[in-house]
């Protein structure tokens, strides 16, 4: 993971960059402690925390980190001498806020580092998830373990209250407020139920309004998500989003407890959709009923050409956002990425389940927060989990058509069946030049556009001319220049298909 990613996640509350002679894209592989009383034990790519070494005493440790090709070193008090030493050693220098505890910083920094599977695939980290939750709720998010230690938090331009500030610094909030939470039974509720808890503001203590939810694995509590209201009220869907967020966060906390780990739930969905795993096995793993209806929804970004890394970041953010919505809708929902698309399995549905509203809500939210176009195709609801590949194939057909020539954000096959069929025929024409009429390929753009308008208007010259904003005689003149027998219905059919392909 790059140093830039870690700095963005940790942000100003904890550290501030002083120098970065090799830029911010250097890889950070681990977080280690450097103590002046011990021999340096640092390796390439390490973020070294210089504990107990201040001023000139830190100089030899910085030089040792540079010789080992560490990515960065962190100190409590920076100075011009330390910055120059770091620059000469080719290692980034971070200054840690005086009130930050080293152990807390080490824990958070390690939490930012993304876990990878044996084949190199990257798992989402808790900081990215916290940012997604903040986007959906409109608030300021902290994810904590059962001991109320902050594991990750969202970035915010809003004013944070004293409780949030102290929590990020690894310190307890005001005791009168914590006592009140205990007396209200807030902590008991978070540990024992999935209920979203509302906590009123306490201006006299500098505490703003909050909502919170417990994170669980079955009946076992894993932690909690807290959302502080910022300068604006929380969104209307904040509580529902928070419920889904808790379900998505649970596997992340389990992964942290059980390293090494793999993309288990994502792989379950991929195995089911490709037929490598039977429905009963998958259902048993996610707590779903294989005999109940299910459906697949497929999402794709349409952000055009651009920086690949930026596209991948947007796609990861979109997948996180989709996961939260899907988990709020169905606890047993599965989400996975494949081939640049995000697949969602929604099991345990009612036979007449209406998924369009859910899908439109996700697309609208994604477009608003990612500032890019998102399209989604909803597969039909099938009778049992065994048949979800039918739903997936249907959704893929619709999304393929949307990518080629269908201007829609959300669609089902029933909505756009004719457009999908024509789009698939046009794809065959595109791939097989030998079955095309060369005379139509040879038409210049003006004649091609005029002929297609005429054919779409079923031969009504005036209607086609109005669509083209030309005089009917102008259109008649253009049609006479085209070397095709337009009285032949087969010629018209081939021309219309081929021109649509253009």
TrEMBL record:
Signal peptide: none annotated. Residues 278-401 form the CdaR GGDEF-like domain. It comes from the Bacteria. Gene3D superfamilies: PucR C-terminal helix-turn-helix domain. Coiled coil: none annotated. Residues 447-500 form the PucR C-terminal helix-turn-helix domain. Pfam families: GGDEF_2, HTH_30. PANTHER family: CARBOHYDRATE DIACID REGULATOR, CONSERVED PROTEIN. Belongs to the CdaR family. This is PucR family transcriptional regulator. The lineage of its organism: Bacteria, Bacillati, Actinomycetota, Actinomycetes, Pseudonocardiales.
């Amino acid at each position: 993971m790059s140093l830039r990613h870690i700095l963005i996640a940790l942000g100003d509350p904890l550290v501030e960059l002083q120098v970065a002679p090799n830029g911010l894209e250097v890889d950070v592989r681990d977080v280690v402690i450097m103590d002046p009383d011990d021999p340096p034990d640092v390796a390439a790519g390490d973020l070294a925390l210089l504990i107990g070494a201040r001023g000139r005493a830190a100089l030899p440790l910085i030089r040792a980190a540079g010789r080992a090709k560490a990515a960065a070193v962190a100190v409590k008090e920076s100075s011009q001498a330390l910055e120059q030493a770091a620059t000469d050693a080719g290692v980034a220098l971070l200054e840690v806020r005086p009130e930050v505890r080293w152990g807390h910083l080490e824990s958070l920094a390690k939490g930012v580092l993304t876990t990878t599977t044996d084949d190199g695939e990257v798992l989402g980290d808790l900081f990215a998830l916290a940012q997604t939750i903040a986007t959906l709720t409109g608030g300021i998010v902290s994810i904590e373990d059962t001991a109320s230690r902050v594991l990750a938090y969202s970035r915010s331009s809003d004013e944070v209250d004293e409780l949030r500030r102290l929590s990020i610094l690894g310190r307890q909030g005001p005791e009168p407020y914590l006592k009140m939470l205990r007396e209200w039974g807030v902590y008991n509720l978070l540990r024992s139920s999935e209920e979203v808890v509302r906590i009123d503001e306490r201006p006299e203590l500098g505490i703003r309004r909050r909502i919170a939810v417990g994170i669980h694995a079955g009946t076992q509590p894993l932690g909690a998500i807290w959302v502080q209201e910022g300068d604006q009220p929380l969104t209307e869907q904040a509580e529902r989003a928070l419920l889904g967020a808790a379900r998505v966060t649970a596997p992340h906390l389990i992964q942290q407890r059980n390293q090494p780990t793999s993309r288990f739930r994502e792989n379950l969905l991929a195995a089911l959709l490709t037929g490598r795993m039977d429905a009963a096995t998958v259902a048993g793993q996610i707590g779903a009923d294989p005999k109940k209806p299910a459906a697949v929804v497929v999402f794709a970004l349409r952000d055009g050409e651009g920086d690949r890394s930026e596209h991948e970041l947007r796609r990861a953010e979109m997948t996180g956002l989709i996961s939260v919505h899907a988990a709020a809708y169905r606890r047993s929902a599965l989400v996975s990425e494949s081939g640049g698309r995000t697949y969602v399995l929604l099991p345990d549905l009612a036979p007449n389940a209406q998924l369009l509203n859910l899908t439109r809500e996700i697309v609208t939210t994604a477009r608003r927060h990612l500032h890019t176009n998102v399209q989604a195709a909803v597969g039909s609801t099938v009778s049992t989990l065994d048949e979800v590949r039918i739903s997936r194939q249907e959704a893929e057909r619709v999304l393929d058509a949307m990518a080629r020539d269908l201007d829609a954000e959300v669609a089902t096959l029933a909505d756009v069946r004719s457009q999908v069929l024509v789009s698939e025929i046009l794809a065959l024409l595109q791939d097989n030049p030998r079955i095309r009429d060369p005379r139509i390929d040879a038409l210049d753009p003006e004649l091609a556009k005029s002929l297609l308008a005429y054919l779409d208007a079923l031969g009504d010259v005036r209607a086609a001319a109005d669509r083209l904003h030309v005089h009917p005689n102008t259109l008649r003149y253009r049609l006479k220049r085209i070397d095709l027998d337009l009285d032949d219905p087969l010629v018209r059919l081939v021309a219309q298909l081929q021109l649509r392909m253009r």
